[in-house]
Amino acid sequence: MTTFRRLLTALLASVLVLAAACGGDDGGAGGSDEAAGGDGGDEATGATLRVPDDHDTIQAAADAAEPGDLVLVAPGTYEEAVTVDTDELTIRGLDRNEVVLDGGFELDNGIRVAGADGVAIENMTARNYTNNGFFWTGVDGYRGSYLTTYRIGDYGVYAYDATQGLIEHSYASGSPDAGFYVGQCYPCDTVVDDVVSEHNGLGYSGTNSGGNLVIVNSTFRNNRAGIVPNSGSYELCYPERDTTIVGNIVHSNNQPDTPAIDVALLAMGNGILPAGGVGNTIERNLVYDHDRAGIGLVPFPEDDPSDDIPPPEDDDRPCEDTLADTPADPETIANPLIWDPRDNRVLGNVVEDSRLADIAVGTIGDISELGNCFSDNTFTTSAPRDLEALAPCEGEGSGGDWEAGALDLIALMTAVQPPSGDYKTSPVPEPQDNMPDADSAPADPATGPPPAVDVDAIEVPAMPS
Amino acid sequence: MLVLLVVAGALAGCGGDDGGSGDAGADLSNTGTGSDSGDDSADGGNGDGGGDLPAVDDAVAMEGDEVAVTSLDNTFRAPAIEVRPGTTVVWTNKGRNEHDVLPSDGDGWGVEVEDFQPGDVYRHTFDEPGTYRYYCSIHGTTTEGMVGAVVVAE
Known about the structure:
The complex is a heterodimer of chains A (about 475) and B (about 150).
Chain A (H helix, E strand, L loop, with lengths): L2 H19 L11 E2 L12 E5 L6 H7 L5 E4 L2 E3 L3 E3 L5 E4 L5 E4 L6 E6 L4 E11 L2 E21 L2 E19 L4 E6 L6 E9 L3 E6 L5 E4 L2 E3 L3 E6 L12 E4 L2 E3 L10 H6 L13 E3 L2 E5 L2 E5 L2 E3 L16 H4 L14 E3 L5 E3 L2 E5 L2 E5 L11 E3 L6 E2 L3 H4 L18 H6 L51
Parallel strand pairs in A: 2-3, 3-6, 4-7, 5-8, 6-9, 7-9, 8-10, 9-10, 10-11, 11-12, 11-13, 12-14, 13-15, 13-16, 14-17, 15-18, 16-19, 18-20, 19-21, 20-25, 21-26, 22-27, 25-28, 27-29
Antiparallel strand pairs in A: 1-2, 23-24
Chain B lengths: L27 E2 L30 E2 L4 E6 L4 E2 L2 E4 L3 E7 L8 E2 L17 E6 L3 E11 L4 E8 L2
Parallel strand pairs in B: 2-5, 3-6, 5-10
Antiparallel strand pairs in B: 1-8, 3-4, 6-8, 7-9, 9-10
C-alpha cells in the first residue's frame, strides 16, 4: 500500500485508540458490540461486526469494518469470495468446522487479503475454491490461526509477497500445489507452527522465500512430497534461501492419488526436498517412510527461465531491493537453468525407512563444491554412500568418493508417477480443533512481527502412535 | 525429483486502474493458446490511485511493433511500459499459476483465465494514446497485487 494510505491508516488507528481511551464509542459501521482490546501494546479498539446479524455477508462486513474491528462470523455456509483491503481486521468464525466458505468450484479465493496490513483470519474453513483458500499478498503483518482448507485448486493457505506472518494451528488438504505456501519474500519474518498438511501435491512449498522463515512443530504426511522449498525465476526474489525447518514430523509422502501439479509429480516420494534451495537449516525433524529420499537436496532445472541466477554475494539482498532489477538477456541464460542446492545444513534429524536414501544430495555437476553439510543425523542409508563423512558441518570432509552411491537424477526425473487425482473429490477432513474462546476473545490483528520461536528448545518429535 | 520441470516464466503484471482518457481502437489478436479476440475498444486510464499501482512516470519505454510483458507468479514484468500508438503488446504467462489480464477500467481487451494458462500468450494492439491499467483478478485487485499499465504516448 502507498505511504499515503499507511499514514492515513495509522492516523485512523490512532484516533480510534484515543476515542477508546476517552470512553468514546466503538466506531465501525454497523457494529453492534464493542470489542475489548488485544493484549499488550497491540491493543485493538474496534467494534464487532457480526455476520449475518449486522451484515449479510463476510464481504459486506469486511467492507464496513475499520482498522481494529472484529468481524465475527456465525456458523453457516458462505458462498462468497472475500477481498479484504482494510488494515488490521480480525475475521473470526465462531466455529472452525461450521463456519464454511464454499467456492462451489467456481469462485477463486476464499478470503484474499490484498495490500491490507495486519489482517488476522481465525477459526473457519474454506473449501471448493478454484485457486486459494486463504490468501495474503502485498502485506506487512498477517496471521492465520485455526484454519481448515480442503478441495482447493491451487493452494490451501497462500502467502505471497507478504512478510511478518504467522500461520498456526491450521490444516490443509486436497490442493494440487501446496497445502501451505510462503513465497517471494526475503526476509519473510514468518513462522509456520503447528500445522497439518496432507493429501496435497506438496505439503509445503516456498518459492524464493526465506530469511527468518521458520517451519516448526508441524506434520506433513501422505502428500506426494512433504516440505519443498524451491527456487526459480518464475517468481521474483530468487533464490529460495535461509528457511529453518525444525521439529516437524514428515512421513509417508508417497501418496499416489492426491491432486498434483507437475512439480509434485516429480518430487513425489520425498520427505524434505529443498530444490535449488540455499542456506537452509533442516534440523531435528522426524522423517520416515518415503519411496525416495527422507531428506534430499536436489537441483531445480527450470526450462525457459526468465532471468539468470544471482551471484552468491546477493544472497543477503532484501527482496524489495531486487524488484526493479533488469533481467538478463535471454540469449545469455542457460536453458534449462539449473538452480543448485548449496550451503544447506542437515543436522540431528531422525530419518528412517527411505527406499532410496535417508539423506541425500545430488546435482548435475560437482556436488562436492556446493557447501551442503550433514551431521549428527540418525539414519541408515545415504546418497552418496558416505555423505556425513564427505560433507560434515564441522571440520574437513573425508575426501572420499562422491560418486559411490550417488543419486541417479536422470532415472529419477524420467520415472513415471501416478497421474494427478481430482482435487474436487479429495478426502473431506475430520473436524478440527476449535480456537479457544472464539466468542469472547478480543480482536487480535497481526500487528508487528510474529512471536519469536525458541528453535533451540525444540526436540526431535516422538514417533506418532 | 524436480528435474524436467518446465516452468514458464514471463513478465507481465496485472494492472490497476483508474479511468482514463483515450479509447484504444485496437486490434485484438492472439497467438498460441491465448484468448480469443475481442472487439476493438478499450478505455485508457490516467492518474495514479493508491496501492501497488505501477508508477507510470517510471514506465519502461519500449520500441518496436511488438513488445513483451511477462506474467510471472504473481507479477507483471515490466509492470509499466510506454509504447507508441499501434504497438502490439504481447503478454506471456511464464508462471506456474494461471492468470488473467483484465482492464481496470472499461473493456474490449484482455484475456480471461481459461485462455491464459501457463505458457499461453495474449496480444493486444493499442492504437490510441492513453494510460491503460490492468490487473490479474486472481492475484490482485485493480489497485493492489498483480497490477500493470501500458502507457501509449502521444
